[in-house]
Amino acid sequence: MKKEFKKPNIRINKVYTKKGDSGETSLIGGQRLSKDDIRIETYGDIDELNSIIGGVRNTLPAHFSKNNKLIKIDVRLLQIQHELFNLGTMFATLDQKMLDNLPIVDVSNIKSLEDDIDRMTEILPDLESFILPGGSDSSIWLHKARTCCRRAERKAVALSKQSNVDTNAIIYLNRLSDALFVWSRYINVLLKVDETLWDPNKVS
What sign does the dihedral 105-106-111-114 (CA atoms) show? Predict the structure, then answer.
């Protein structure tokens, strides 16, 4: 059974604090790091990824009438947005003991992504080449999310070479990028939009 957390007790009544004017920012626990530190860049990419997934979700309602399975995808992507906040928490916390009382991603979240991938892959046509991002607007947004997720994964791996990083955090990003790729294909199938395969001999 997953641990239950209290609802966040956060009040933001002033957007700017001027505390970051020196080029540093605070982690959970109060430690200060330069804003170009690889740790900050990692959870910055995760924040960007969350925004892009919000963009994916914004495209979906226009297609709900074409296939109601898209509603389930929207619900799942919302869940992933929450998980990405939890993932960001992991990178924004240096003191690993503090994470015992903070929400994180774990093996159950990774397993859910693997289950998603397996279910969708069952109905997708086999790939005979690489895919050129395109097709439906939702699929294009998912490819943008995938490439951002890969970037976050690369930064997380780089960070792991100089600091302690929970292995599950890196694995989660890897599985999520795979899931976003499969969703990009799956949505095109649901919308009956053809995907374009890379042809190295294609010329204008």
Answer: positive
What tokens appear for 100 in the block?
């015992």
pLDDT in tens, 56-89: 999 999 999 999 999 999 999 999 999 999 999 9
For the question of whether the overall pTM of this predicted structure is more than 0.85, the answer is yes
For the chain, the straight-line distance linking the first and the last C-alpha, in angstroms and rounded, comes to: 56
Q: Is the dihedral of CA 174, 177, 179, 181 positive or negative?
A: negative
Q: What angle is formed at CA 24 by the lines to CA 20 and CA 29, rounded to 5 degrees? A: 95
Cα–Cα dist 40/204, whole Å:
43
DSSP 43-101: HHHHHHHHHHHHHHHHHSGGGTTT-THHHHHHHHHHHHHHHHHHHHHHHTB--GGGGGG
Cα gap 190→95, rounded to integer Å: 44
* Separation between Cα atoms, residue 83 and residue 103, nearest integer Å: 9
Phi, psi of 20 (to 5 degrees): -100, 10
Other C-beta atoms closer than 10 Å to the C-beta of 59 total: 18
Cβ–Cβ < 8 Å for 99, 162: no
